[in-house]
UniProtKB/TrEMBL annotation, chain A:
Keywords noted in UniProt: DNA-binding, Sigma factor, Transcription, Transcription regulation
Family to which this protein belongs: Belongs to the sigma-70 factor family. ECF subfamily.
UniProt cross-references to Gene3D superfamilies, sorted A to Z: 1.10.1740.10, Winged helix-like DNA-binding domain superfamily/Winged helix DNA-binding domain (1.10.10.10)
Signal peptide boundaries: none
Residues covered by the RNA polymerase sigma-70 region domain: 26-92
Organism: Kaistella pullorum
Protein name: RNA polymerase sigma factor
Length: 185, 176
């Protein structure tokens, strides 16, 4: 992965080979970024918009990328910010008095595949019951297995705070599942 | 469910994506993010650039000089040409001469049969001048003197006839 990332950076640094570099970057990270965005936003169409905006911003602002961090860290940071902006926009547009997090929990069941397991659906609902920062830390650590050092760069939080947040998030998710899981539906 | 550990749960995606979804995303990104094709830039040789600059300077200088030269010509024309009054005289003199010649021909055409000596134009001009001076002198006499002269020529009988024809002023009668 490290070699591939260096190749992407080399291609994108040159004006002539930038398009080729973007293609390579999308091939490498589009799936991981999409699922990261989808877990935050839930809706597929919105997730697609955010993914596209992420790559477009990465393409147009590549000169701002400081190579002291890894490329995927930078992409995760853009994707996370774009997702949160999209969520805030949705919250502002929401006219009902329904709690936005509760609205997302309901959307999980509506958007889940027909063959999705109940425990998996319940896990997603539990994640959407978390506060925003815990939600982000938990999803990126649990699903993407990102190291705390990289998470620190993505979320501008110290490693200690991240570990604490992950610990509390994991505990809340487990409690949520224990309370809501019905073994005999 | 009491001993539930989330770390033991398999990581699965519960959502699905449409077919060719990522291909569409890539196409959209490249369409929107790729810079618009720029106009072809023609590299200019320094020699051509210098030649073009020199030509422009000469052209501008020539135009400027031409604009400045036009008023000078007009000024020169004004200096050379006589004043407007003189020009009018020049224009009118030939016409007057022509009129005089035709007038002279008309007058002399009748007299040529009886008179052989044709007066010179200068003589006629002098004669006309003297007549004009006499008329001017006569008009220079005051109106009172002229009235006296006219009255002196009229007899008493003619004056009585003129008085009969005059309308009587009723208001003047009051003071008689």
């Amino acid at each position: 992965m490290k070699i591939k990332e260096e190749e992407i950076i080399r291609l994108m640094s040159s004006e002539k080979s930038r398009e080729k570099g973007v293609r390579l970057m999308m091939d490498a990270y589009q799936s991981r970024l999409y699922w990261h965005i989808r877990r935050i936003i839930v809706d597929h169409n919105l997730a697609q918009d955010v993914l596209q905006d992420t790559f477009i911003k990465a393409y147009q602002n590549f000169h701002q990328f400081k190579q002291d961090s890894q490329l995927y860290t930078w992409l995760y940071r853009i994707a996370t910010n774009e997702s949160l902006q999209q969520l805030n926009k949705l919250k502002r547009m929401q006219k009902t008095d329904e709690d936005p997090d509760y609205h997302l929990q309901n959307m999980v069941a509506d958007n889940a595949a027909p063959d999705a397991e109940d425990i998996q659906i319940l896990l997603q609902k539990a994640i959407h019951s978390l506060p925003e920062k815990q939600k982000l830390v938990f999803t990126m650590r649990y699903y993407d297995d990102l190291p705390y050092e990289e998470l620190s760069k993505i979320l501008d939080m110290s490693v200690g705070t991240l570990k604490t947040n992950y610990h509390y998030a994991k505990q809340k998710v487990e409690d949520f599942i224990k309370q809501n899981y019905n073994e005999n539906p | 469910m009491k001993d539930f550990d989330i770390e033991k749960l398999e990581r699965k995606n519960i959502y699905r994506t449409p077919d060719n979804f990522f291909a569409d995303v890539q196409a959209n990104v490249l369409r929107e993010a790729a810079p618009a094709p720029q106009a072809k830039v023609i590299s200019l040789n320094w020699a051509y650039a210098a030649a073009a600059a020199v030509a422009t300077i000469f052209g501008v200088t020539f135009m400027m000089n031409q604009h400045e030269a036009e008023p000078q010509i007009v000024q020169n024309e004004q200096q050379v040409s006589p004043p407007p009054s003189a020009r009018i005289i020049e224009e009118t003199v030939p016409e007057a001469t022509l009129a005089y010649q035709t007038f002279e021909e008309d007058l002399t055409s009748v007299e040529t049969d009886n008179q052989k000596d044709v007066p010179a134009p200068t003589m006629i001009a002098a004669k006309q001048k003297s007549e004009k001076i006499e008329v001017a002198k006569s008009t220079a006499v005051s109106p009172e003197v002229q009235v006296d002269q006219i009255l002196a020529n009229i007899s008493m009988a003619e004056l009585a006839d003129l008085g009969k024809n005059a309308e009587q002023d009723v208001y003047l009668d009051l003071y008689y």
